[in-house]
Amino acid sequence: MRILVTGSSGHLGEGLVRVLRAEGADVVGFDVLESPHTSLVGSIADRAFVRRGMAGVQAVLHAATLHKPHVGSHGRQEFVDTNITGTLNLLEEAVAAGVGSFVFTSTTSAFGRALSPGPGEPAAWIDESVPPVPRNIYGATKAAAEDLCELAHRDQGLPCLVLRTSRFFPEADDREEVRNGYADANVKVNELLYRRGDLEDMVSAHRRALERAPEIGFGRYIVSATTPFTRDDLAELRADAPAVVRRLFPDYEAVYAERGWRMFPAIDRVYDNGRARAELGWSPRYDFRHALDRVAAGQDPRSELAVTVGAKGYHAEPTGVYTVR
User: Fold this and answer.
1) What is the total count of domains within the chain?
2) pLDDT tens, 135-147?
3) Looking at the whole model, is its pTM more than 0.85?
4) What 3-state class would DSSP assign to 272?
5) Is residue 45 part of a domain?
């Protein structure tokens, strides 16, 4: 099978290309940057470029995007060109080429302001029923691109699944108070409780979506590590998150104390991946329990794939925490 992976020089894109090629797939990689994992260098906003690269392709994994860290360095029109026009080009050329499966990498940032409860409110339980409330041009363009995917399915019959991925990037947190207050590994292990996933699990979700798209037709799915929390925990999570974690993982404090780590005092949202697990048959491995056990054993909590791909950065010139290697 010939599979097109867009954003193949990026973090997720490289992971997808590595795994697919190891499985023997014929992979075509698109990106604006050269890399060993990119076959064709060009922009998805260029319809002619997309058409040439779509020749013979049977499935598409569309991970190319301008990300949230680009909000401060790129104009809104550039977000529209890449995230909306680029997605439209890929969808329409995929239909013309008779592609049988299309997977669009979206983001939980599409939920926008729905992720932030008001003062005194419990943590937000985020599943696919929550309507997006745009916070910035990144989330707005990703939500619009999701709608284009739905139209391509309903109007033209393209099997297309949308994966709203949570955090999986290895770069440091963009909030200064978090970077200064917690070790980086501490932050990422904490986030596995409610808003983060490992790269290996992200790749496996895309592989399952690629397989399931022809039967499902269209669907939106949250892709994140499986949370141990339930809706009954939401009020306490907002008031005293360590108490909830202590109740569920009595050993966590000792493991954290050995490393000088701390749990966040409050958690404001919880991502529910139940639909992805049920409908895609997806089985993520890298949750908080898994990470805690590895940390306790003196091991890296990340998957081998995540360690191999490493950090990519988002800008060619230094721009704070989001820089290239």
Assistant:
1) 1
2) 888 889 999 999 9
3) yes
4) coil
5) yes
